[in-house]
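Subject: design request, 94 residues
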C-alpha cells in the first residue's frame, strides 16, 4: 500500500487544529481480521503493522505517526468526528 501525508497541512503547537483533524486528512487503509483458527478456544488474530518512508534525500527522515481504530465493515473513510469520539486501539488484544 502506498500513501503520503497531506503536505499542505503541518501540525505545530501553534496550530488550532486537533490530531483528529490531522489524521482524518491523511491516507487511511482498512483491513479485516478474522480468527485464523476458529476451532481453538482463543478468538484472536495477530497482526503486525510496519511503516517505512521513501527517502528522496539522504538523511532526511521524518517521524511517522499512525493510529489504529476498530470500525465497521462498511466504513470506507473515518471522519474527523469518528476519530474525535472513538479511542484508537492501544496494544490490546482484540
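Subject: RE: design request

Done. Sequence follows.
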Amino acid at each position: 500500500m502506498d500513501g503520503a501525508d497531506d503536505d499542505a497541512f503541518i501540525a505545530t503547537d501553534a496550530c488550532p487544529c486537533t490530531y483528529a483533524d490531522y489524521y482524518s486528512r491523511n491516507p487511511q487503509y482498512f483491513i479485516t481480521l478474522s480468527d485464523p483458527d476458529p476451532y481453538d478456544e482463543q478468538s484472536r488474530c495477530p497482526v503486525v503493522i510496519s511503516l517505512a518512508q521513501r527517502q528522496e534525500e539522504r538523511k532526511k527522515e521524518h517521524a511517522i505517526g499512525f493510529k489504529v481504530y476498530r470500525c465497521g465493515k462498511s466504513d470506507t473513510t473515518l471522519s474527523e468526528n469518528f476519530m474525535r469520539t472513538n479511542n484508537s486501539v492501544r496494544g490490546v488484544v482484540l
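Residues 1-94 form one domain.
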